[in-house]
Amino acid sequence: MERVVLVGFAGAGKSTLGKSLAKLMDCQFIDLDRYIEDKAGLSIGDFIFQFGEQSFRKLEYACLQDVLKIKDCVIATGGGSPCYEDAMQLIVKNSLSIYLRLSVASLFDRLIHAKKKRPLLPDNEEDLKKYIDFNLKKREPFYSRSSLIVKGENINVKQIFDQIN
User: Fold this and answer.
1) Going by C-beta distance under 8 Å and a sequence separation of 6 or more, which residues neighbour residue 114?
2) Among 105, 104, 81, 65, which residue's Cα sits nearest to residue 15?
3) What's the number of domains the chain is made of?
4) Which of 27, 38, 99, 104 could cross-link with 143 by S-S, CB 3.0 to 4.6 Å?
5) Is 148 exposed, middle or buried (0-12, 13-18, 19+ CB in 10 A)?
6) DSSP track, 52-108
7) Does 159 map to a domain?
8) Residue 156 pLDDT level (bands cut at 50, 70, 90)
9) Residue 102 belongs to a domain
10) Domain membership flag for residue 157
């Protein structure tokens, strides 16, 4: 397998699973958000603040195209990455894609208790729940085009590894 790409909403566990999966597969792990920050020389939050979300999505798409050329790797995308331009089509065509599916309630619980602030997410509980519900419904059709869909609440990295090998 040349590459595995993990997709799903913010807080789904893409980076955590990606690191573990890459270790089991003995290959490189790429966090698309970190790749973008390195390329831009700014945090994602600062980039969005300075240049806007549309400029960020263009940069994110260009960076996705870059990392999809790298062989033998596991890539964790940002939550919105697959939903811009034809990104999900590129992901499906160039990798084994895995959607980490979680309920709105599970995502809310993870995100409200997260230590790391995410730039596009609202701060208060009511707005956050509405944001997750609204955006998950919009993004689900993209995520669902993945090669493999796994329940994200109790992920077992060894089972996923066995399933894709």
Assistant:
1) 11
2) 81
3) 1
4) 99
5) middle
6) -HHHHHHHHHHHHHHHTT--SEEEEPPTTGGGSTTHHHHHHHHSEEEEEE--HHHHH
7) no
8) confident
9) yes
10) no
pLDDT band at 163 (very low <50, low <70, confident <90, very high): confident
Q: How far is the C-alpha of 5 from the C-alpha of 30, rounded, in Å?
A: 9
Q: Residue 1 above 80 pLDDT?
A: no
Domain range holding 103? 3-149
pLDDT digits (tens, 9 = 90+) for 99-138: 999 999 999 999 988 767 777 788 788 899 999 999 999 9
The C-alpha angle with vertex 107 and arms to 35 and 114, in degrees rounded to 5, equals: 65
CATH number at residue 120: 3.40.50.300
For residue 145, pLDDT beyond 70: yes
From residue 41, alpha-carbon distances to 67, 75, 79, 81 in Å are 17, 20, 21, 19
Q: Which residues contact 130 (CB under 8 A, 6 or more apart)?
A: 122
* Residue 30 domain-assigned (yes or no): yes
